[in-house]
């Protein structure tokens, strides 16, 4: 057993696939491959996985991810069809010379995990969502937002990383923020962002990670947060919500059903409140873009 090996925990029935990050004297520090989870386990509880893609845990996640992407593609196709009907080329205009241009909502993504951030940025790029990402420890996020918000002026902020209920909690009550690894840091970051912009429609905040204090994050000013049932959430769940917010027209309210049930974790992992989308259409289309579209 060595650093970088894929493993599962016997005591949990191999429900989550991990990679070994480091070692302690009698245990290993583990990081979830698909879920935003940091854990430790004794060596005797671990089984090395030679073919991680073939595990039951990995296969189940893949099915859910594919279903989520299929729904996203269907929703995107419907929106493109609606835009084409309202703003598409008039009779006699050459193909590709439609008179409108698109302005999707801009995302600022702060992530406490560098590998999850890379996966998130790949998804933003794939979905054509303008996004800037920054890897930072959860405790640094409030101060970073104070610096970044006036300069970057995003439409949507994602505040995520690692979280979870502490094994040896000072308070047995899960309503206490002291019972969580990073929920207090996330709450502080949300409060900084909400003090910058009090309007939940002009600045959309998506906050939390695995098992985060859902109610505290909403009360602090988040539009969407994890985790209502204190479950593990998929690493990309906050990104799916951000993409939905970026691609929903500003004249429409983001569908809570589509946004929440479009995630891997569903309503047990993510919840939120009614929020207006950030996607805008502009006219006329810039001449340079028309020339590019026509191959000039």
UniProtKB/TrEMBL annotation:
It comes from the Bacteria. It holds the Pfam family Peptidase_U57. InterPro entries: Peptidase_U57. This is Sporulation peptidase YabG. It comes from Paenibacillus sambharensis. The lineage of its organism: Bacteria, Bacillati, Bacillota, Bacilli, Bacillales.
């Amino acid at each position: 057993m060595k650093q970088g090996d894929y493993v599962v925990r016997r005591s949990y029935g191999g429900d989550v696939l991990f990679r070994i990050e480091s070692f302690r004297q009698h245990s290993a520090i583990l990081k979830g491959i698909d879920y935003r989870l940091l854990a430790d386990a004794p060596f005797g509880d671990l089984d090395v996985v030679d073919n991680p893609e073939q595990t039951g845990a990995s296969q189940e996640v893949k099915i859910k991810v594919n279903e989520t992407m299929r729904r996203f593609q269907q929703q995107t196709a419907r929106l493109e069809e609606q835009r084409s009907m309202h703003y598409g080329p008039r009779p006699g205009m050459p193909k590709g010379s439609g008179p409108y241009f698109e302005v999707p909502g801009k995302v600022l993504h702060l992530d406490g995990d560098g590998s999850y951030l890379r996966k998130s940025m790949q998804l933003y790029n794939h979905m054509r969502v303008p996004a800037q990402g920054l890897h930072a420890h959860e405790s640094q996020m409030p101060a970073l937002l104070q610096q970044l918000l006036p300069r970057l002026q995003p439409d949507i902020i994602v505040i995520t990383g690692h979280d979870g209920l502490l094994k040896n909690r000072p308070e047995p009550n899960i309503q206490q923020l002291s019972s969580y690894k990073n929920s207090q840091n996330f709450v502080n970051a949300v409060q900084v962002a909400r003090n910058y912009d009090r309007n939940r429609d002009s600045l959309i905040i998506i906050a939390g990670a695995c098992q985060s204090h859902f109610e505290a994050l909403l009360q602090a000013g988040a539009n969407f947060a994890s985790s209502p049932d204190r479950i593990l959430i998929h690493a990309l769940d906050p990104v799916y919500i951000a993409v939905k917010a970026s691609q929903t027209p500003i004249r429409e309210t983001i569908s809570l059903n589509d946004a929440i049930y479009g995630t891997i974790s569903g309503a047990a992992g993510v919840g939120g409140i009614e929020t207006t989308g950030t996607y805008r259409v502009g006219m006329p289309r810039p001449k340079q873009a028309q020339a590019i579209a026509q191959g000039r």
